[in-house]
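Sample log: Probable chorismate pyruvate-lyase.
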Amino acid sequence: MLTPNDPTDAHWRVVPLPSLTDARKDWLTRGGSLTAHLRTLGAVTVEVTREAVDMPWRDEARALKITPRTPVWVREVALKVDGVPFVVAHSVVALAHSTGVWQSMRRLRTRPLAELLYSDSSVSRSALASRRITARHPLHRLARKQTERTSHALVARRSVFKRHGAPLMVTECMLDALWTRLAASRARSHREHARSHEHLSSHAKRVAHGEAK
């Protein structure tokens, strides 16, 4: 279970940094499938960028309670909304579990990992933890591969899923395009609300002057 300030990695926090915007805090703490949340913004597609045997990142090994030299199965994808990358995800499971408890992970192809994680009642999930990601973190390098312009600091979240005691960690990094889309949606909603208010006010004035039918 990830804790608010894990002594082995104080960067990851269950409570998001207070300096983050409300939108970022919202998306970093939303439960359920991130893919499902993205579908509220448009058509979602999954681009698999890498599946391979590798070694875990230092902070992954600590959270999974394995040694840094334990071989793992890695799946990296870009989640796109209407063809634009909004999120890069990095999932890792001990290699032995990838051919056992979590063997279905290897057969997903372009289907989202959420299909495995949220359709099985035997799967439990830890608390979500989040942090800022800078160029020093390998997740930032994955983000840069998806977009030419990447902010110096991005935000990411992670959690550990367990099935029959076998942990699988999913780390998701939000890209700038997500915040741009959300800001545009808020601006459009504000304009529509303003136009509706203006129309109602105009109608009320016409009624007051006996002009409206």
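Observation: The first strand starts at residue 44 and ends at 54.
Observation: The mean pLDDT is 88.
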